[in-house]
Request: fold
Amino acid sequence: MAVQQIAQISSNPVGERIDHDDDAAKWWMTVALFNVVVFGTFGLIAAVKMVMPGLFAGVSWLAWPRIRPAHVNGVVFGWLVPMSIAMFHYFIPRLSGAKLYGTRISQIALCIWETGVIVATLGLLNPWGGELQAGSLNPWWMTKGKEWEDYNAISNIIITVALLMVDYVIFRTIAQRRYRQIYVATWYAVGTLLWTSLVYVVGNWPGQAIDWTLHTYFGWDALPHFGFTGSNDANVNWFYGHSIVGLVATPGGIALAYYFLPKSINAPLYSHKLSIIGFWTLGAIYFWVGAHHMIYGPIPYWLQTVATVFSFLLFIPVAAAVINFLGTSRGEWHQLRNNVVFKFFIAGTVMYFLVSTQGSFEALRPVQAIVHFTDYTVGHAHLALFGFATMFAFGAALYAAPRMWKRPLYSEGIAEWSFWLAFIGITIYVVSLTAAGIYQGKLWMDYPHLPFIETVVAMVPFWHARAGGGAMMVASMVLVAFNVYKTATSPAPAETRVAAKA
Reply:
């Protein structure tokens, strides 16, 4: 077993058994599961409004341009990152042979983090229109209006403070470990926290707000400005936007898989060396990939080429992870019949390979000429953040919750339903939007002979499929959250309680 391997390679004795209370992990998981239902519902409303534009027409804060960025950012910073942090709090103490350092600090950090998410979401759904009408724009409270860079500067500062507090708790826990060798799940957890801290600060640097403050209150108009401008601004925007997927959601999801996949099937990890190769190549390559979003855009041609080359080099860390996960599963495929956690991780592994392959080929200029700005990209993004990262997170939640609350999973049947709804829903979603994007791109290329509105009408059947698949995905979110909630709150007979094993 994975944990037995850790004990064997450790130069320190295991010593007495540690009773992990998991209070911080419980808090973070509870908030994350609440958020995934809320922000998933926002996404479903946005999808339905594509075929029913009049839906909630009288409710300004549910307008499509407001609810869409609230959904996109909320899924990452309200769901995926908090869920990864919850699971880091669960498995890092176990892999370190030490209790979590600073449970109270982490709980305070969660309150600060959720405050930042709420402030940012309210700012997107209900902008300060009065100030706008008065002509007094305060960029500390305004969105920058860029893809992924939607949260206002105040909320970004709040979230950054919480993230640094989490970094402190996790790193102090690792520093007091009793096991000398660091297991790969911990490597990926550390990488996730470090890369998220770097990416978040760079992508949300409040340069415009700082410039506005210096100009308004100090009359300073001299260069240099503190914000990014011109093509540099575009490049930083997509360094941030793509790194949200590649250096935040991806290593966080892989960290969960490296711990929970071997545990869920009671099998040893296929290759520790291969996992380390995947870790370092992911960190070295992904920083250069974001510019492929601006092929034929306002950046130098050579930088577009570099982004394309590095997009294909991503096959190295992807292959390392996929081979490792499938190798770990060899001889255990029979468990797919009744092990729902295993199903989530295998489905997520397949979709990780598919979305990475899709993304690499999408970086080619001939492909970009067709699919850029189309619904193809929307399907691609959901295959990453739901098909891969959320599938892994659901599997981790269903494995860890019974062990954290020390009682059986409330319902294996509900867990099965949540898997199939998630799997079928994301399949319908991605297939329909992939086909829609290719068709849409082809129609646009014939634009001089085809009115644009006809290309919109042609998308309606695909958007119906998108809404149907999205409804199934949201239903799976509700079922997972309900299952964990009932697991945590339903009393269990003493003889059936689940041991608090790692």
